[in-house]
Design goal:
The complex is a heterodimer of chains A (270) and B (207). Chain A is 53% helix and 14% strand. With 270 residues, chain A is an alpha+beta fold. Chain A is globular. By secondary structure, chain B is mostly helical. In chain B, 57% of the residues lie in helices and 11% in strands. Chain B contains 10 helices and 3 strands. A 3-stranded antiparallel β-sheet of chain B has the order 1-2-3. In chain B, β2 and β3 form a beta hairpin. Chain B is elongated. The two termini of chain B are 25 Å apart. The chains are: A alpha+beta (270), B mainly alpha (207). The interface between A and B is large, with 43 and 39 residues.
Chain lengths: 270, 207
């Protein structure tokens, strides 16, 4: 079904993209029911982000309320990418975004100049344009959505608007998690999310060692097991890391043939 | 406090603090218990319930009254956890009601971190009560904590705990304690030891 209008730029491709965008938001909003799992939502949100904006990589970082930013979700579990997020406690777009509460972006060589430690490290992973979008709650910035594109392929303002809307979904999700909005309850939610991520890292290590696979496959096994058994990702991670579930049971969900279950963007040079 | 059924009060600063712990143990309900069970901070800025905070919490029918009688105006329970590793709970109270502002919360969380890691070594690796007490106090004073504290938030460190746990058939708490012990003994950064373990370049032996 062709639908072109000269001068307006409307194409089938753009319409499809708008449809996928709307579907992604509906799917994310559908997840905001009582008792949903924040770790799963963050992961789904990043996958949607990467898909819709054709990103090389993305990450979600939360303020730990002790003065640092910590990654709680990543489009890929590769260590160098996680460390690129952690590095931004010293320098980088997320640090600037967190401090100022505003959108930060730099395209290709600008990033090298602006962040002499972070810039080259991002480039080494094949990233050119880098962005950080604030997660804002009233007067506070509680985190940042970090986006990476391949060299020479910056995002448009429209794209960044989509990205900001996704960052806002993440913020709403934290508040909606147990339907709490007061100041003290925010601390409860943030600390829970941060601690859950640690349990996920512990479980990833156990599965990776047991099944002798990389961290991406280990994470995919956690999500796959959670899905197949109708339990939350965070609960599975806690159960594996505490020994309540034998690591072998979850490791059985590791995908060995062909693609890993989880869609991943593989940065060049990693 | 190691688990909710065999909790040990490790330290109480005064009679009120001790009473708050005791009453929760007697009733089986309260902020310390919730914080331990669910793993999130339980912050009660107004015990008197003027804002309805305590009254609205499900599951504290008995504790609410006992808390008011104890003389505490605000109670904050911070779980001492590292992922799935549960060390205990830090319960802090104030006579005056009021929220923990961002600065106070940050200080409380940093102190809870220090306490968690000071307790984690001796709790995980055993030792008698007195040794444990001394090493906790040493741990809280040690400069080494500040130097490595950023490392304790790195993904590789927690992944390495998982890797080592499976390699040696031990719990992740013991694995983390082993990694820290090795780093300290060899004068290496904890994150460096973690990377070596994950890469298979360092194999620690069973003890």
């Amino acid at each position: 079904m062709e639908n072109t209008a000269s001068g307006s730029g409307t194409t089938v491709e753009a319409e499809n993209r708008e449809r996928r965008l709307a579907s992604a938001f509906v799917a994310l909003a559908d997840n905001l029911v009582v008792g949903f799992d924040l770790a799963e939502l963050f992961d789904d949100l990043l996958l949607a982000c990467v898909d819709l904006l054709e990103l090389a990589a993305a990450g979600l970082l939360l303020a730990d309320q002790r003065g640092a930013l910590r990654p709680v979700a990543s489009s890929s579990e590769q260590t160098r990418l996680l460390e690129l997020f952690e590095l931004q406690n010293d320098e980088g777009p997320c640090l600037d975004c967190y401090r100022d509460g505003t959108r930060v972006g730099a395209v290709d060589d600008e990033a090298l100049d602006r962040w002499p430690m972070f810039g080259p490290e991002a480039r080494a992973l094949g990233f050119g344009p880098v962005y950080a979008l604030p997660m804002r709650l009233r007067e506070q910035t509680i985190g940042a959505l970090n986006l990476f594109r391949p060299v020479g392929a910056p995002l448009t303002d429209h794209d960044l608007g989509v990205g900001q809307a996704l960052a806002d979904v993440a913020t709403i999700a934290i508040l909606q998690h147990r339907a709490r909005v007061a100041e003290q309850q925010l601390a409860e939610e943030l600390q829970t999310a941060l601690n859950s991520r640690i349990a996920i890292e512990q479980a990833k290590g156990m599965i990776a060692e047991f099944a002798q696979v990389d961290m991406d496959r280990a994470f995919a096994a956690l999500r796959g097991y959670a899905r197949s058994n109708g339990v939350r990702l965070t609960e599975v991670a806690m159960a594996v890391a505490s020994g309540q579930i034998a690591v072998g049971r979850v490791a059985a969900a590791v995908e060995r043939d062909g693609e890993a279950v989880r869609q991943q963007s593989r940065p060049a040079g990693s | 406090m190691t688990d909710e059924f065999n909790s040990d009060l490790a330290f109480a600063s005064d009679v009120t603090a001790r009473r708050l712990d005791e009453v929760q143990f007697e009733l089986g309900e309260g902020p310390t218990i919730d914080a331990f069970r669910h793993g999130y901070p339980v912050l009660v800025p107004d015990v008197e319930g003027i804002s309805g905070a305590v009254v609205r919490r499900p599951g504290w029918p008995g504790f609410s009254r006992a808390a008011r009688e104890s003389g505490a105006g605000a109670i904050f329970a911070l779980p001492l956890r590292v992922g799935a590793i549960r060390v205990g709970v830090l319960l802090v109270y104030r006579v005056e009601p009021g929220e923990l502002d961002a600065d106070a919360l940050g200080r409380a969380l940093r102190f809870a971190d220090a306490l968690t890691y000071a307790l984690l070594g001796p709790v995980a690796l055993g030792g008698n009560g007195e040794d444990q007490h001394d090493s906790v106090i040493d741990g809280l004073h040690a400069d080494t904590f500040d130097a490595s504290s950023q490392d304790l938030h790195r993904a590789v460190v927690h992944q390495a705990s998982g890797v080592l746990a499976v390699q040696l058939g031990i719990g992740v708490d013991v694995a983390l304690a082993r990694l820290r012990g090795h780093a300290f003994a060899e004068g290496l950064a904890l994150s460096e030891v973690a990377r070596l373990v994950i890469a298979g370049d360092l194999r620690l032996e069973a003890q």
